[in-house]
Write a structure and sequence with these properties.
Blueprint lengths: L21 H17 L6 E4 L5 H9 L10 E4 L2 H9 L3 E2 L13 E4 L3 E2 L5 E2 L6 H9 L4 E3 L22
Parallel strand pairs: 1-2, 1-4, 2-3, 4-7
Antiparallel strand pairs: 5-6
Length: 165
């Protein structure tokens, strides 16, 4: 306890600035374009991958005109993507709850690197197996990546060891 009868109160924390980083703006732009070009409100089952870009994919889908929130189900590839889906007010559905012999309409996911021939490195995260299951059970796989992920040759800038190319 202080002997000072009039202690100086701590300064109030500064309010967060509403400035979005250029990286987040690039991710959001890539996600918005991917959703605009590859999502339809008539879709019933949509796969959602893991990682930082899918946050923007889910936001773009949640804002999509005509989205039927009651009858569209989103299949997450991990805990983080399930949380993002739920926070957006969308319906998460476990992969093993998809009706037998039904393919998802589309799956959106990111990548660690993409070359000019659209070869991708995936595997920097912990959800690769579930991402692969979801992607292979979709009619269309859409890789969402901003300009930072484009490389001339795979493995030239990525510092990890890919599980799969």
């Amino acid at each position: 306890m202080s002997d000072n009868p009039h202690p100086i109160p701590p300064a109030a924390p500064a309010a967060p600035e509403p400035v979005t980083s250029l990286i987040e703006q690039a991710k959001a732009a890539a996600a918005a374009r991917a959703v605009a070009e590859h999502f339809s409100p008539s879709f019933r089952y949509v796969g959602i991958g893991s990682g930082t870009t899918v946050v923007h994919v889910v936001a773009a889908i949640a804002a999509f005109p005509g989205l039927d929130r009651q009858n569209t189900f989103f299949v997450p590839t991990g805990f983080q993507s399930r949380q993002v889906i739920t926070a957006a007010g969308l319906n998460p559905l476990a992969f093993d709850s998809i009706p037998e012999n039904v393919l998802m309409d589309v799956c959106f996911d990111g990548a660690d690197e993409v070359d000019e021939d659209l070869n991708c490195i995936k595997g920097g995260g912990a959800c690769l197996y579930q991402e692969k299951l979801v992607a292979t059970h979709a009619r269309k796989f859409v890789c969402v990546a901003d300009h930072r992920k484009l490389v001339d040759r795979l493995l030239t800038s990525w510092k990890g060891r890919p599980v799969e190319v």
